[in-house]
Amino acid sequence: MYLAQKQMYSQHPSYTNGSSQNVKKMIENFSYGLHQQIGKGFSSKVYKGQNEVTGETVAIKVIDKALLKTPLHHALLQSEIEALSTLDSQYIMKLYKVFQTQNNTYLITEFCENGDLGSKLTKIGKFPEQQAQNVIFGLVKAYKLLKQNGIIHRDIKPANVLLSGCGTPKLADFGFATTPNSPPLLPNVNVGSPLYMSPQALKNNKYSDKSDIWAIGVSAFEIIFGQVPWQATSEKELGQKMVSVPLTFPSSTKVSQECKEFIKRCLVVNEQERASIDELEKHPWIRGPELAFQVNKQPALLKQKTLEQPKEGKENSAKKLPGDSIHRSGKKHTTQITKPLGQQSKQTETSSFEIKSNTSNIEYTIMSQINFCKYLFRVANLIESTNLFRSELIRDKLLFFAIKNIMIKMYKLKDIDSNSLDIQGFDAYKTSSQFQQTQITIQQHFTKYQSYFKNIWSMLQSNKNELSIDKKFDAVFDENFTEFESFYIIFNSVLRQAIKELQKEIDKKLGSDDLSKSLPVDMEKDVVLLDYLVTYFQLSQLTLETFNKPYEFAQKSKIEHIAEGSPVRLTYGHFIEIKNKMSDLEV
């Protein structure tokens, strides 16, 4: 669940010097300028803002409490926050945080640099069918999550669909949404935009999940044909036409029969007979094998100059990296990661994820990311099982970084269909049977790791207040899985501290001078963890060095050899080697 963290303030946000229009406002670690307004509503204004810690561009919705004059207005705002806090999908605008001051409510959300779909339609008129499929596919996926959580949007339309930098559609503006916790009268209040409202909502103020299906159908019609299905001069006339004038498709635009059937099933007047989410998901128009489109690839019509994004952490990424010097036992190994000592390679058994010498560069690149996640999962389990850290907060921070790192990588892999790793020659690879198997593998791992993340995330909420005292950590203590260099920069500081603390605690408990003697069984897992953390430190540094260069990461890390292997008994001599490696790396 994408949970927004609410924080309360008794004072106004701070201001920096400047003219009345160029003044910069701060709310916690987020800033925005009055000249950066990008939207406006009944009681709110939306600004382009920035997370001053990570450099990430965000959208900041400022709701003026003085304009919320009735209990209904307050209930709608509460439902909007609850809905966005509950939903986590690449096809729904993400809510990062909520702040309350005496005068305003601030919603910090994902920033979509390509604007909204309604504005695009105003400029270009309509989309080709294949590009419309992209959008409707995303809306169906978003709607499914709403349905699963008992949420009704009640205002789905092109103007409320935002477009990310790569053209991914994201359902937004939940200002009229209802949730299972909404007040009883709220679902029957007349809201929404008449052109997209179902006959039941328009005539009788009756909303259901099928109301959103109708709106998806109207939106699909408008995206493809450049107009809505029924036009009228009044709401009464519009309502009459919906139930009496048969749906017809303009002959000037040629579309597939599957497209027409999809829209027809959404626009059935009788709610009981209208398409369900299960039917839409299985409809051949958005899942047929003949579709030659990539779900998240930027449509050609959206390829235009976009707002420039800030470059994260460049001033900090010049630290000592694996390419500069990674040593072991006094020998220099350029841009190579040293394998943990507490494991040996499997020579006779081939893992399904092991990279073979004859595997293509593309497969090699993708599988290196999967193997990295496998390694991190092993690290996370070791962190969970240790009690040797003096501070529980260090352990919790370390555990969170490891599992969030997994999810950052897995969300990128989950979007592999749109070439999220920016691999050359990927279009040809997509047609291969190997790609289909790779997608299955990714989904299996994603499901496993997502479940693990949710469990750990839930567990860590009990220490949220203590963890959030560290403002740098708090900046990444969320469920935003976009990959930024700043994540690794902040993480490396915590990891370095954890490694030093763990090494000191182990030193206190070990006293043997016999380097060949095996470690005590009760200490072995802690030494293994130390070994793994040092290797993780190298991998994290290498990630910064090769940021957005996954093939180079695969080549330099040789992660397939690190991820595979079986445990071996560690000796005191191994522990000395680990400490030497720490010294060489200047941990």
Automatic annotation (TrEMBL):
Region Disordered, annotated ranges: 304-352
Q: Where is the Protein kinase domain?
A: 32-286
Gene Ontology molecular function, alphabetical: ATP binding; protein serine/threonine kinase activity
**Which example biological process does GO assign this protein?**
regulation of autophagy
- Keyword Kinase assigned to the entry: answer is yes
Task: Please indicate if the UniProt record lists Kinase as a keyword.
Answer: yes
Protein keywords: ATP-binding, Kinase, Nucleotide-binding, Transferase
* Database matches in InterPro entries: Atg1-like (IPR045269), Kinase-like_dom_sf (IPR011009), Prot_kinase_dom (IPR000719), Protein_kinase_ATP_BS (IPR017441), Ser/Thr_kinase_AS (IPR008271)
Any one Pfam family match given in the protein's UniProt record, by short name = Pkinase
* Bias (Basic and acidic residues): 305-327
Question: Which SUPFAM superfamilies is this protein grouped with?
Answer: Protein kinase-like (PK-like)
Task: Show the ranges annotated as biased composition (Polar residues).
Answer: 335-352
Q: Name one GO cellular component term.
A: phagophore assembly site
Q: Which domain of life is it from?
A: Eukaryota
- Write out the residues that bind ATP: K61
Q: Which PANTHER family does the record cross-reference, listed alphabetically? A: NON-SPECIFIC SERINE_THREONINE PROTEIN KINASE, SERINE/THREONINE-PROTEIN KINASE UNC-51-RELATED
Subunit structure, interactors included: Monomer.
This protein's name = Protein kinase domain-containing protein
Q: What is the lineage of its organism?
A: Eukaryota, Sar, Alveolata, Ciliophora, Intramacronucleata
